Amino acid sequence: MSIVIMVVGSRGDIQPYVALGKRLKQDGHRIRIATHDAFRQFVIDEGLEFFDIGGNPVDLMSYMVRNPGMIPGMVTLTNGDLKKKKAMLKESCYAPSRGTKGPFVVDAIISNPPGFAHVHCAEALGIPLQMSFSRISRCPTTAFPHPLVNITNSDANTGLTNYLTYYMADLLTWKGLGSHINKLRKRVLNLEALDVRTGPSILEDLKIPWTYCMSPALVPSPEDWQNHIDVVGFYFLNLATKYEPSSDLVAFLNAGDTPIYIGFGSIVVDNPHALTKLIFEATANAGVRALVSAGWGGLGGIDIPPHIFILESVPHDWLFDNERVSAVVHHGGAGTTAIGLAKGRPTVVVPFFGDQRFWGTMVHRTGAGPKPIPHKKLTIAKLSDAIKYALSATAKEAAQKNSIEKGVQSFYKHLPLLNMRCDLCPSRLAVWWSTKHCLKLSTLAAQTLEKAGLVEMRELELHRT
């Protein structure tokens, strides 16, 4: 099959889907990653096709830090990229990739929720869609509320309140994006418009299959989720085997006690110098050495004390392995949280926006770290105390196993294979439908029958799965 994976977000959002794409490619599928141009070389270096959908993830992260209550997806509307993304997400299903030969005609779509065109492109093309997310649930449940909806008072019981928060989030998103989605459906995809009754809950109403690549140890699958929703664990991309550390980094690691790691990944902070100074003083107070990742926030830039080493880009699966660091402090991104726990690293979460606080809370519940410290409330004393807790024996918890294989099987499980197979050549995908013969036909079968004078191509219709 030719599969397009639509992903909108930061490096931490893209990386799990690259891992998934590589595994699907091993099964003989053609994989295209449709995402931001900033990740072009990363995707190509991993042996997958790339398609640019526009948008600057650095601007996205900066905006989200300044507006932490904004629902992801609404940012697309406010930053002016929506018109371009609408066209590019559609074109990712059929347009040739730069640097590749031959046409691309998609047979199935995998997408994360912010790639909002997913279900509409799948409907227009009549192909299967698999939703996948490395962050917390977008599927309604009574077990916990939507991570971006904060209800302080409710007359309903807790379960019902939790359930309704998902519809509140969908309604708010539809209020901002609904008119633009309908323009995409009517003007670009030739589909009927949706309204407030059908638009917000379209994924739930159609029972589109979901695969959550998050740790079931942190977030067990709720009992009220039906069998079209799977929780399989995080998808890890093995980058450690290709990495060679610099001599300066090796020297620092060998020069004293095991350091901790501090980094906020793709987060763009307003005052990197102030945050850098706070980190330096907190680690000195805690009596620890630290590897501090510069990240997109630009940490560093001031005099570096001897107990600090400023990192550039280092694969977490290498850095967090083999006891190279004793604990990790980060923003609570799903990917960083997962790899830290998978390597058995106690974790301190300093959330900035979105579901990061949720992950910090889940880490704390397992005992693998202290309560999350929102970045606006971060002080030298609080960070120092949190580091000391993370280094305690209580915080050293076991973590999850790699679960990418379960993600691949989840994708296969939800494919409508009976409706996708050619009736005459079951090993091939059906492309055409013959009303006269009531047959689903692959391209090869249709051409063979036409040459034999048994069908006429003009009588065939495109088959919709």
TrEMBL record:
Q: Please report the stretch or stretches of sequence annotated as the Glycosyltransferase family 28 N-terminal domain.
A: 3-133
Q: Which UniProt keywords apply?
A: Transferase
- Stretch forming the signal peptide: none
All residue ranges annotated as the Erythromycin biosynthesis protein CIII-like C-terminal domain in the record:
303-400
The record ties this protein, via InterPro entries, to: EryCIII-like_C (IPR010610), Glycosyltransferase_28 (IPR050426), GlycoTrans_28_N (IPR004276), UDP_glucos_trans (IPR002213)
> What does the record give under GO molecular function?
sterol 3-beta-glucosyltransferase activity
Q: GO biological process annotations for this chain's record?
A: carbohydrate metabolic process
Say if the entry is tagged with keyword Transferase: yes
From the Swiss-Prot or TrEMBL record, give the protein name.
Uncharacterized protein
